[in-house]
């Protein structure tokens, strides 16, 4: 680009870029390369400028695709970068900002070009672009693409994160993300692609645990973009080129996991991302963790994520685990608590709870679970601002947590005061368990009106009421107990204060809240029974097993209409179980329920028999 390039609009006519993509081969020893990578680029400050940059890069990259087989200039550019990566660590120790700046610029150009290459050609054609070289006879049969990937991984794990290295580390992480973006252009899962094999079986394999650990620590550290003074090549880092150009790739890759859509609804203004390296590192970690196993070899990155241990864990391993390492669980837990507003942090939490038993045990042993649960509940409370996949992940996280009896006991012992984000009514004092029940039921009820996610929500309800989860019992037992306790307190208070004019506690409001929660829960169950009975065998099983919990609600005037369908279902399946015989196993009971769900006439269930409004 050259030292004089300062605006996006200058790029298409820049003589150095024209020479790079042109028809003349340029020797790696030519002073041209030093001039090309010594540019100061004014960062785009809006998405429009970032889009303009991509539009200008595309025709330049297409010219390079056409001419590179004869010139080998792209390979020369890659070799210029590889030559500098060997000295990056020393340059960092010596605070050689000029050297790091030029290395960053080189990688930035490679990344912009590769993004277009991937869009325009197959993996095999991309590999060929890395093989065209007019002058490099001493290199033999070296695979330049694998060398680039290997050097990027080495850069990420070996170069320390400082103000002067922040940008090049960000570029390295983002370039790897772009390399894996081939999946975006294929409907089928890529299991044996060139990039995949290089990362899974090539030179990168030995660095698996170090890469996963470094990406986790990047997420944990939550380092912001350094101030402009630290970037002699980045006059405007925050919200500019560093994040803006990568955001399209990052959000695109994230859509692979969320099946489309971002964490916040379109149209809602967002602040410029102050944590680009942290967020990109987390995205790359999730991409690596979700790569499929290859034909004959497992995903080493997933193995590393599922078996890492706490730094304070000094116990010996029962068996040798590949790619294991140790990391500070307290720091990771803190970062997870602080970052749950983002989809990717929620997905990481789900991944760790689901796949890493060490981390799951640690999280469930914490005495400050409110720090983790409250952000998740806030996500669910603001359900209208989140996409259905983020909401569903949050619900599944709560499902995993509530499978633990100790967790279910402990959350009802944590008393919260003044939950400010809950605005429907003033919650001056409420237990964490009660808040969880209130928010989860409210969330599920809200989503019942959204047909696109009804099946997901109905299935999550079925999971919450599964044989290994006691949520139904805990919910109704607790609600019944609280309802009776408030009634008793109100009665005793009235008897004991005859003639006393002091204000009484607002027991009527407390009763109204409890009855509203009970009603919402019954409405959700009723919706599942009417709309997807065959998808909810666990729910039917729980209704039969804990039928006594509903006795006191049956005669309550607020719940009589809702209870009609529950009584119909309980009566119908009870009769079929009696006909099936006595001493039935759990498996046999579930079989009877599954067959009965297909046989129950739909007209026997009243759709929306509820007159209750909120």
TrEMBL record:
Keywords: Lipoprotein, Myristate. GO terms for cellular component: Golgi apparatus. GO terms for biological process: Golgi organization. InterPro entries: Dymeclin. The keyword Lipoprotein applies. It comes from the Eukaryota. The keyword Lipoprotein applies. Belongs to the dymeclin family. This is Dymeclin.
């Amino acid at each position: 680009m050259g030292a004089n390039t300062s605006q996006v609009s200058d790029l298409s006519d820049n003589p150095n870029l024209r020479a790079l993509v042109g028809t003349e081969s340029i020797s790696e020893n030519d002073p041209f390369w030093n001039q090309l990578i010594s540019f100061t680029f004014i960062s785009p400050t809006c998405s429009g400028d970032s889009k303009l940059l991509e539009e200008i890069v595309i025709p330049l990259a297409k010219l390079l695709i056409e001419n590179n087989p004869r010139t080998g200039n792209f390979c020369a550019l890659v070799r210029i970068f590889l030559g500098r990566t060997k000295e990056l660590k020393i340059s960092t120790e010596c605070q050689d900002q000029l050297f790091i700046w030029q290395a960053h610029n080189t990688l930035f150009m490679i990344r912009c070009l590769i993004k277009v290459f991937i869009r325009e050609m197959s993996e095999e054609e991309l590999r060929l672009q890395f093989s065209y070289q007019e002058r490099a006879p001493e290199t033999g049969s070296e695979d330049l693409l694998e060398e680039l990937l290997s050097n990027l991984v080495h850069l990420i794990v070996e170069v320390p994160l400082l103000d002067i290295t922040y940008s090049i580390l960000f570029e390295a992480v983002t370039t790897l993300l772009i390399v894996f973006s081939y999946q975006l252009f294929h409907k089928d899962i890529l299991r044996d692609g060139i990039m995949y094999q290089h990362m899974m079986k090539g030179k990168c394999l030995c660095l698996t645990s170090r890469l996963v650990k470094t990406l986790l620590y990047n997420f944990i550290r939550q380092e912001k973009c350094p101030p402009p003074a630290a970037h002699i090549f980045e006059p405007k880092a925050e919200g500019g080129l560093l994040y803006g150009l990568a955001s399209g790739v990052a959000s695109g890759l994230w859509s692979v996991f969320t099946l489309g859509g971002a964490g916040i609804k379109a149209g809602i203004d967002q602040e410029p991302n102050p944590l680009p390296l942290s967020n990109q590192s987390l995205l790359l970690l999730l991409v690596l963790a979700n790569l499929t196993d290859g034909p004959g070899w497992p995903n080493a990155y997933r193995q590393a994520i599922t078996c890492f241990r706490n730094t304070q864990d000094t116990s010996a391993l029962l068996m040798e685990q590949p790619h294991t390492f140790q990391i500070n669980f307290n720091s990771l837990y803190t970062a997870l608590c602080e970052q749950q507003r983002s989809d990717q942090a929620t997905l990481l939490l789900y991944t760790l709870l689901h796949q890493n038993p060490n981390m799951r045990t640690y999280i469930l042993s914490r005495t400050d679970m409110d720090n983790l649960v409250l952000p998740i509940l806030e996500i669910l409370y603001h359900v209208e601002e989140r996409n259905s996949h983020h909401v569903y992940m949050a619900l599944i996280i709560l499902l995993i947590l509530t499978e633990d009896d100790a967790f279910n006991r402990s959350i009802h012992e944590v008393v919260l005061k003044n939950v400010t984000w809950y605005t429907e009514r003033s919650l001056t004092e409420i237990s964490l368990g009660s808040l969880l029940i209130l928010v989860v039921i409210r969330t599920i009820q809200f989503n019942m009106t959204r047909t696109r996610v009804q099946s997901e929500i109905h299935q999550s309800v079925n999971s919450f009421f599964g044989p290994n989860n006691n949520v139904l019992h805990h919910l109704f037992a607790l609600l019944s107990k609280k309802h009776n306790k408030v009634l008793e307190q109100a009665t005793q208070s009235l008897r004991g204060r005859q003639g006393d004019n002091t204000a009484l506690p607002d027991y009527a409001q407390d009763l109204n809240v409890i009855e509203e929660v009970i009603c919402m829960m019954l409405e959700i169950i009723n919706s599942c029974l009417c709309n997807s009975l065959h998808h909810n065998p666990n729910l039917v099983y729980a209704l039969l097993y804990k039928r006594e919990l509903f006795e006191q609600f049956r005669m309550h005037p607020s719940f009589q209409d809702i209870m009609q369908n529950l009584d119909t279902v309980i009566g119908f399946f009870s009769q079929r179980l009696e006909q099936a015989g006595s001493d039935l196993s759990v498996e046999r009971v579930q079989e009877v329920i599954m067959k009965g769900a297909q046989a129950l006439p739909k007209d026997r269930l009243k759709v929306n028999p509820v007159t209750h409004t909120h």
